[in-house]
UniProtKB/TrEMBL annotation:
InterPro entries: Nuclease_put_TT1808 (IPR012296), Restrct_endonuc-II-like (IPR011335), Uma2 (IPR008538). It comes from Cryptosporangium arvum DSM 44712. This is Putative restriction endonuclease domain-containing protein. Coiled coil: none annotated. Gene3D superfamilies: tt1808, chain A. Residues 15-174 form the Putative restriction endonuclease domain.
Length: 185
């Protein structure tokens, strides 16, 4: 499977993007260009669910963890991170503005690995998202980045059974291997 870029004679507006019918694929708007990728694999979704559950148990009451939510990084830039930690607890709007995003996490997929590893962190840094996590299912490995002078700096990383300890924006400890376990124990 691969990522597709849908060509239009003019950039797609945010209104056009939000009005599109659901196709079962992940669609994102980057500078007026619609980027379409296949739906996530089962291991990807397992990691996303387990990580969301772990984070949800640790976030403070003023934060909310959501999977695959629309995030407006800037005008004409709406992305769908695998996970987002938001300050807008209980909000019911369709798009979360970057100012409400404390953390984003991307889980690598074969078709979007370079987008997840390079493009999205760059766009998130421009939007001043304070924390960005990258999850590589191989290992699995979780790498935590904090925004520092406009770019991300790695502050923690762990693979497999090694304990990952994070203190900001909230305290959380887990072993990345837990994210791919076939059953929770």
């Amino acid at each position: 499977m691969s990522v597709a870029v849908e060509l239009h004679p003019e950039p797609i507006s945010e209104e056009e993007y939000l009005a599109r019918p659901y196709t079962g694929q992940r669609e994102e708007l980057i500078d007026g260009v619609l980027v379409v990728s296949p739906g996530p694999s089962r291991p990807h979704q397992r990691i996303s669910f387990r990580l969301a559950t772990i984070l949800d148990q640790r976030v403070t009451a003023d934060l909310e963890v959501q999977e695959a939510v629309n995030v407006r990084l800037a005008s004409g830039r709406l992305i769908v991170p695998d996970l987002a930690v938001l300050t807008s607890v209980g909000a019911d709007d369709v798009v979360a503005p970057a100012a409400e995003v404390v953390m984003m996490a991307e889980i690598f997929s074969p078709s979007t690995k370079q987008i997840d590893r390079l493009l999205k962190p760059g766009l998130a840094a421009e939007a001043r998202i304070p924390y960005f996590w990258l999850v590589d299912p191989d290992g699995p490995t979780v790498t935590v980045h904090n925004l520092d002078n406009g770019s991300y700096r790695e502050v923690a990383s762990a693979s497999g059974e090694k304990l990952l300890t994070v203190t900001e924006p909230f305290q959380v400890e887990f072993r990345p291997a837990e994210l791919l376990a076939s059953r929770r124990g």
